[in-house]
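idk why but the lab printer keeps eating my pages so im just putting this in chat instead. protein + adenosine monophosphate:
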Amino acid sequence: MKVVSDKVSLRKARASFKGTVGFVPTMGALHAGHASLVERSARDNDRTVVSIFVNPTQFGPKEDFSKYPRTLEADLALCRKAGADLVYTPATLYDKDHQTWIDVENVAAPLCGERRPGHFRGVATVVAKFFNLVQPTRVYFGQKDAQQAMLLTTMARELDFPLEVITCPTVREADGLAMSSRNRYLSPDERKRALVISRTLHAVQTLFDKGERDVDKLESVMESALGAEVDRVDYAEIRRWRDLGEIKMIEEPVLATIAVFVGNTRLIDNIVLTPKRGKLASRQGAKRPA
Ligand code: AMP
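predcted complex ->
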């Protein structure tokens, strides 16, 4: 596995690769969730490139950019074990007076986009730069950041990046907490309270499986379960899956999505709820009697 930190070496290493190239962009502090993306890429492609870069342009002025965990040696070991061929660790990626930005408008508007102004503009811009530098055949994102995955899928399609975007399932700790680089900020008490997030999503799934389709009802179940344990509910919403639009009743796949603060740490998680085809639909699909 090769490690490079400047654009010239990256382009040179990339040019030496024949066949398909998978790419996994990360901010480091890697865990089993990241490893699952690298492993998937290594299975699907001849070569796999990982980037490790804590991207300043996606952090707000009061967010955790300066204290974001940086664990390069352990990250490189994880990349090696997961099957990466090349790791790109730039110190910086922007000109001092960088002035070109990508705004994906509608997908970035609600949820994390509304609460973290400028965040998705920073994400889209840095990922577009990586796409141009790495020129991957396939790129891998986690469902854990569902809005981000949706945004980057939209960007790749609308800007004609010649690559395939693949979204991979959320990897969880044994007790259900979604893995996140930010979990290491949590005190033991906060870590325990953070479990309410996956528990709440599980409860929503159960209610949905029993037939509940009313979004207001499900959202108020989420609000009250979370409110009892976390320090602030940033949002707890059910949105149409295909475009994150608002709905009243669940009649098509939706995202049940949560962002909360536990202590000073902001955590997110989500699940997709998919209504089964109704009796009518399956009867229509069945073979007609002669
Ligand atoms: P980050 O380092 O937080 O920017 O994440 C890099 C990539 O890893 C993103 O595509 C994330 O969605 C993905 N990722 C982060 N946590 C998980 C997880 N628990 N399961 C699956 N993918 C994840």
